[in-house]
Fold Lon N-terminal domain-containing protein.
Amino acid sequence: MALPQLIPYHSSSSFTHQPSVNPHAANPYPSFKPFLKPSSLSQSRRFHRLNSLRCSASSFPDNHHTEPPKSDDVVELPIFPLPLVLFPGAILPLQIFEFRYRIMMHTLLHTDLRFGVIYSDSVTGTADVGCVGEIVKHERLVDDRFFLICKGQERFRITNVVRTKPYLVAEVNWLEDRPSGSEDLDGLANEVEGYMKDVIRLSNRLNGKQEKETLDLRRNLFPTPFSFFVGSTFEGAPREQQALLELEDTATRLKREKETLRNTLNYLSAASAVKDVFPSS
């Protein structure tokens, strides 16, 4: 089961994307194809995004922090611009067939298996905040294409472009969420989970699907990895996902997700009421 079309949260301080990286390519993001079929969470507890990204709560770390690099570390990272947003803990299947990115894969498979995934589209350009993808499984085909399974790790911000050919390489700083002070993060996470369950239930009803017992969506995740999991389920709203990825405060991220889910729930409630009055519509 995927979440329905979301009604993104908007406020006076809402995210405004300012592209700061130009890979100097005619195509703003490389060619890629999904190779795993999307599935329904109601059957397999998996979400899918853009028919190429699948993630589940079990993909996300149980601990709030898993010894991430220090935020003031500067490292060079090969960058893979894509029309999607990767979150820490999410699973990303990719098929690599463009020549320059096959070169990248040959290098990565002999080094540390990590590259930066960054959102790019023809309207907003290329973002400067992304997420490290670590290759956890790969298959090289006879025609030199690659099938990859990657897992999202640390977030980063691009600080300097080192080179653009044959593929983009940049210096990056690591991003971590700031302490949320006196905010009740567990309470916020539980509220978000409640809204997600309501959206799932009402969406299934509108689509004529059999109502089943609501899933345990949080699966004992701490608030920060849970907030990333929630963001990864916002299918079809990559700019909203990018805004969530860039936030450096767990409470703010959860509140924004709660508002998006609440707006979506209000829309679905209205649609359900219309359907009850006009069953054939």
Observations:
- The first helix runs from residue 41 to 44.
